[in-house]
Design a protein that fits this description.
306 residues; 4-stranded antiparallel β-sheet; single chain
């Protein structure tokens, strides 16, 4: 006997959809409990290969001019891999060692050991580094390190001055830097000079066409990522840049900072020359010298009214 209620007819999937559902249920039944399907396994494998490689850094604290070490392991194969240190900007970087992990290690792999020399204080970045090898193209995980400022060298000074105070927008002014160092100029093996005002977009900078005669013998000096021709006289190197303010205001300018590698008792048979090849910022060239020292100095901050 029919009642007054109306039952909706049960919907059936079309034959093709029913076939797909049936095949899907067979596939699920074929996978044991807890197993991963082949596409999922492949995705997990790809993720394992492309996941950033960790970088293990030696314990801190970290200071400008003090070397720290970094270790990177490429797991899976002891075959040779290659690493690109080109993206590193905040550190002087050198490949200390590279080779297969020892047989006593819990896994097979290839290891890189780097020496890193912080060139300025603050939060420094070790960017992702590309690695090529049998496993394809890999990359390390980027990290940041807080680097402290060491005590300045007592026998070294850095003085930065500005001409024409106050000045006007568009008026060229002179930035002069005088660096007095210990020992003879031939004892200086590497230099890294950073002048924040030259990197400030509020000021345009350019070189002088000629140096004053009292600057002494022309010599090249690395300033940031450029080379500036200065003059060496005795134990002092001086250089000049032209600054052109682009807007008005009162500006508090951070002091310049200089890190150098000095070898004591260096021979003094040669004088300065136009482009000093020893100023290539390879601070690790003196690692085996008992006479080498890395010295750091910072100039006082400046104020400028435009």
């Amino acid at each position: 006997m029919r009642t007054g209620t109306h039952q909706k007819p049960r919907l059936r999937p079309p034959p093709r959809l029913a076939l797909f559902v049936f095949l899907g249920s067979l596939a699920c039944a074929a996978e044991p409990a807890g197993s991963v399907s082949p596409p999922a396994r492949q995705a997990a494998s790809d993720a394992a290969v492309t996941a950033p490689l960790p970088v293990v850094i030696s314990p801190g604290p970290y200071f400008v001019g003090t070397t720290l070490s970094a270790t990177i392991v490429v797991p899976g194969t002891p075959a040779q891999s290659l690493i690109d240190l080109g993206p590193i900007r905040d550190f002087e970087a050198a490949l200390f060692d590279a080779g297969p992990l020892p047989d006593s290690a819990p896994q097979k792999g290839y290891v890189f050991r780097l020496n890193l020399l912080p060139k300025k204080p603050g939060e420094l970045q070790l960017p992702a580094l590309n690695i090529r090898g049998p496993a394809g193209r890999l990359a390390t995980a980027p990290i940041s390190l807080e680097v402290k400022e060491p005590e300045p060298a007592a026998d070294m000074s850095l003085i930065v001055t500005l001409s024409d105070q106050p000045c006007y927008v568009g008026q060229p002014i002179t930035l002069e830097i005088a660096w007095t160092f210990p020992g003879h100029i031939n004892g200086i093996h590497a230099v890294d000079l950073r002048v924040p005002v030259l990197e400030n977009p509020t000021f345009k900078s350019r070189d002088f066409f000629a140096l004053p005669k009292d600057f002494g013998t022309p010599i090249g000096l690395p300033v940031g990522n450029t080379r500036v021709i200065g003059g060496a006289f005795g134990r002092t190197i001086r250089l000049r840049k032209i600054l052109v303010p682009q807007k008005a205001g009162k500006f508090a300018l951070p002091g310049a900072a200089l890190l150098c590698s000095v070898v004591r008792n260096a021979p003094n048979s040669r004088m300065g020359f136009a482009y000093a090849p020893q100023y290539d910022n390879q601070f690790f060239a003196d690692a085996d010298s008992a006479n080498a020292a890395r010295l750091y100095v910072r100039s006082a901050p400046l104020e400028l009214e435009v």
